[in-house]
């Protein structure tokens, strides 16, 4: 063997030895890290237990309230329960540890009292500075009990002896999914608002988090090193919205019913107060699987061709220029024509023939609208676009809420403008506008031309102190003259009286509005039978209080004629309006003092005296019960007491079903119901001996 080979062989041996030593070191490290114990505990846990770092304790997020003070969103605290067993003095610890174990076993019900006592004693023996007593977080009510326990009890003179209750806040919506997309939601990891009001007012709602030192213990448990001022977070401010929970429920119920009836893809309803712009309801539903959910704010961000509802802007521009008379005749012929290669068609088969300009709007004639536009604006496209800007249809409304889409309304300077763009725009195509933006325009017409910005938040409060207050914003310049606004109101009322929405007219209050049926674009082409239907209007028409838009997108059915807005979206508007008029007593003339309401010819009148007192005071009625409890009316129109012994079958005749169920079911009776209205008859004779679980049938009329 030569010298070179000898050197190579020795070097190889050294390399092998180094590799073996490195493997031994690595193996030892792995063993120490994951397998070796010291006093019964893995080293990795002992190392983790010694880590101290800065941590953030989230502040309690502010509440979101409805217009009547009802909670729409709030943060409910839950608490992690821990203990530093080294804090208490030996005599106190020995005296109280058994009691603590018993109390812990009663509240958590997963271990015996002895197990909890042994857990705490073992932690003290090992000088552990913190032990997690249970992974389940306790509620606020449970916390109130626990702060009276040994080790957790404190006073002005004596601090808690090691007990730690660290809060965590979870967002809760008392009304479930109502207005969920409007209220918004939080990011589960960061706690920041993701959408809706939660995101729009994140800074105000979030409050000020606390930052301090925590000790990272086994299993990722975080124990505060101290409870100094820096570890006390500052709660967020509260949001007071304009949402009325009753209006919101009416809107969502009517919308859901229509979407289910037509198996529609999505829809929305917005209800706004005319004078102030305050939004009382904003419902958004989208089909998902077999139901409808609020996962997108169509009202705020759902841009689309508005269709015939846009004809109001066209008519108003013509009237502002005094280019038309509402009584002038327009020859619409057979309801179909071609202009520069663009086919223009009316929904009514066979057309309407020669009609007035007023009827062009009421019957929603595309051909008639085109002819009126051609007579004036086709040579002045810039002037028409100026009016759209004046009507505030080319800019967002500026509502204090993130996510509002910017409208896309063409003008001659934009790319894509063609020789038929003005024609399409005149009856609501070649543009993208949201429902909220269209409603705000109609609201201005109802408001005699005064444009009001929509608002959904009225106040931001810190406890009882108002930090910021939002006032209604009215644009300094009206969108049109009072004369044009008056004529526009006539046109909208005519649509409901004798036009495309005449079937929602009623003798109790007047509705004014406009239907809109826009064909949807499928694979780049407008498709017959695929519609975006809407109705925008206000009520009462003679003294507008509320404006409203209802949208039902992509309704389905065998008869295309029954998929237009007049048959689909307008009835939703009527249902919402009916319920609001019935609910809002401010819309009704007050009853004169002393006036007596007629009583039904048949059937008893009965009820609970407190309820009748409230009704009489609210409606200013003269007749009020003078007795307490359950009462019934005499033939003379007075009230007398109705006995309701707990051991006898009560007399529920004349009561509402709700009151009757309260009396009967609380006595253990099984109730069946026939008919609707108030209780006319009951199968068991009043006053007979009561036997629990006995069936009883109520006949309503």
Automatic annotation (TrEMBL):
Coiled coil (residue ranges): none
Gene Ontology CC: plasma membrane
Sorted UniProt keywords: Carboxypeptidase, Hydrolase, Membrane, Protease, Transmembrane, Transmembrane helix
Protein localization: Membrane
Domain PASTA, chain residue ranges per copy: 643-701
InterPro entries reported in the protein's UniProt record: Beta-lactam/transpept, Beta-lactam/transpept-like, PASTA_dom, PBP_dimer, PBP_dimer_sf, PCN-bd_Tpept
UniProt cross-references to Gene3D superfamilies, sorted A to Z: 3.30.10.20, 3.30.450.330, DD-peptidase/beta-lactamase superfamily, Penicillin-binding protein 2a (Domain 2)
Transmembrane segments annotated in the record for this chain: 12-31
GO molecular function, one term: carboxypeptidase activity
Pfam families registered for this protein in UniProt: PASTA, PBP_dimer, Transpeptidase
Any Gene Ontology biological process: cell wall organization
Full protein name: PASTA domain-containing protein
Chain positions covered by the region annotation Disordered: 626-645
């Amino acid at each position: 063997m030569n010298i070179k080979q000898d050197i190579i062989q020795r070097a190889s041996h050294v390399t092998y030895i180094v590799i073996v030593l490195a493997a031994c070191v690595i193996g030892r490290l792995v063993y120490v890290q994951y397998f070796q114990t010291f006093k019964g505990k893995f080293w990795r846990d002992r190392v983790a237990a010694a880590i101290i770092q800065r941590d953030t304790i989230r502040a309690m997020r502010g509440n979101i309230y409805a217009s009547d003070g009802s909670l729409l969103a709030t943060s409910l605290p839950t608490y992690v329960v821990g203990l530093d067993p080294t804090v208490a003095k030996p005599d106190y610890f020995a005296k109280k540890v058994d009691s603590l174990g018993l109390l812990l076993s009663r509240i958590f019900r997963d271990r015996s009292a002895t197990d909890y006592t042994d857990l705490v004693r073992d932690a003290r023996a090992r000088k552990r500075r913190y032990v997690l007593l249970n992974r389940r977080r306790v509620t606020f009510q449970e916390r109130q009990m626990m702060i009276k326990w040994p080790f957790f009890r404190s006073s002005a003179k004596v601090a808690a002896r090691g007990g730690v209750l660290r809060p965590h806040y979870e967002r809760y919506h008392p009304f479930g999914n109502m207005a969920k997309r409007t209220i918004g939601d939080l990011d589960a990891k960061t706690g920041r608002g993701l959408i809706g009001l939660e995101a729009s007012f994140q800074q105000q709602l979030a409050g000020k988090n606390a930052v301090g030192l925590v000790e990272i213990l086994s299993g990722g448990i975080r124990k505060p090193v101290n409870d100094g001022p820096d570890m006390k977070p500052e709660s967020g401010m509260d949001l007071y919205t304009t949402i009325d929970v009753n209006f919101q429920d009416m809107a969502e119920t009517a919308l859901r019913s229509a979407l289910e009836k037509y198996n529609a893809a999505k829809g929305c309803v917005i209800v706004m107060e005319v004078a102030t712009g305050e939004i009382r309801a904003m419902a958004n539903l989208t089909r998902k699987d077999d139901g409808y959910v609020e996962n997108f704010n169509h009202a705020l961000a759902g841009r689309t061709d508005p269709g015939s509802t846009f004809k109001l802007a066209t008519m108003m521009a013509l009237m502002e220029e005094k280019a038309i008379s509402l009584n002038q005749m327009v020859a619409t012929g057979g309801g179909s024509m071609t202009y520069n290669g663009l086919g223009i068609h009316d929904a009514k088969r066979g057309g309407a023939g020669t009609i007035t300009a007023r009827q062009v709007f009421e019957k929603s004639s595309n051909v008639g609208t085109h002819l009126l536009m051609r007579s004036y604006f086709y040579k002045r496209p810039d002037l028409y676009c100026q009016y759209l800007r004046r009507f505030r249809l080319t800019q967002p409304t500026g509502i204090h809420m993130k996510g509002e889409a910017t409208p896309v309304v063409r003008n001659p300077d934009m790319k894509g403008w063609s020789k038929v763009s003005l024609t399409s725009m005149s009856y609501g195509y070649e543009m993208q506008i949201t429902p909220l933006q269209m409603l705000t325009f109609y609201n201005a017409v109802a408001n005699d031309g005064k444009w009001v910005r929509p608002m959904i938040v009225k106040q931001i409060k810190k406890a009882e102190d108002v930090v910021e207050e939002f006032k209604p914003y009215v644009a300094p310049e009206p969108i049109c003259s009072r004369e044009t606004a008056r004529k526009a109101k006539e046109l909208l009322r005519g649509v409901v009286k004798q036009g495309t929405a005449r079937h929602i007219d009623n003798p109790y209050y007047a509705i004014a509005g406009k239907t809109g049926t826009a064909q949807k674009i499928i694979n780049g082409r407008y498709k017959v039978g695929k519609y975006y239907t809407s109705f925008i209007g206000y009520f009462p028409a003679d003294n507008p209080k509320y404006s409203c838009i209802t949208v039902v997108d992509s309704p389905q059915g065998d008869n295309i004629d029954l998929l237009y807005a007049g048959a689909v979206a307008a009835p939703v508007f009527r249902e919402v309006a009916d319920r609001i008029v019935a609910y809002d007593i401010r819309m009704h003339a007050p009853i004169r003092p002393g006036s007596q309401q007629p009583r039904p010819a048949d059937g008893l009148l009965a009820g609970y005296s407190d309820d009748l007192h409230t009704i009489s005071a609210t409606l200013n009625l003269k007749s009020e019960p003078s007795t307490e409890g359950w009462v019934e009316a005499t033939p003379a129109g007075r009230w007398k007491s109705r006995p309701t012994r707990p051991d006898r079958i009560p007399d529920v005749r004349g009561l509402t079903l709700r009151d009757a169920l309260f009396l009967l079911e609380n006595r253990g009776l099984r109730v069946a119901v026939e008919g609707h209205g108030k209780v006319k008859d009951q199968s068991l004779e009043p006053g007979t001996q009561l036997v629990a679980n006995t069936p009883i049938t109520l006949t309503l009329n």
